[in-house]
Amino acid sequence: MLESLVTSKTRIKLLLKFFSHANSGYLRSLAKEFDESTNSVRVELNRLTDAGLLVSEDEGKTKVYRANNSHPFFDEIKGMVSKFLGLDELMEKIVLRMGEVDKAIITGDYAMGIDSGTVHLVLIGKDLDEEYLAFIIDKTYEKIKRKVEVEILETDPGDIQGILVYGK
């Protein structure tokens, strides 16, 4: 869906990163995370900033970017990204019924802006209801026609690369 509206793969990755959760990032970390050149990421960051969709602030010598939540289309873009990921309802149900979910992170192809048909999700929390998770994953497949693969961790190892969709 997003690929037909937005032709730049780098721009899709940035929209997914910034509009799926309150994520922020700086040029070099984004280029490394997306496995893209700093120049292609810089061009798209500038375009999105010029359009008012992103805001930047200096933290020392580093410019940090985040979504502009006061932009008139912020909620609409956030909704489109959430539907693209197919996890808006899944995340709501998981957080309400799974137990103490600390974080949910999308990894793999979807975190890179690629619709491969399989969503990789890492859940971090203690005593999560894995039986309910299996049920909700089956229901999600029926609804969005994407396979969801979930890895459950009790603690955050701190090095998971992906898009934070729930937690801090």
TrEMBL record:
CDD domains: HTH_ARSR. It comes from the Bacteria. InterPro entries: ArsR-like_HTH, WH-like_DNA-bd_sf, WH_DNA-bd_sf. This is Winged helix-turn-helix transcriptional regulator. It comes from Algoriphagus pacificus.
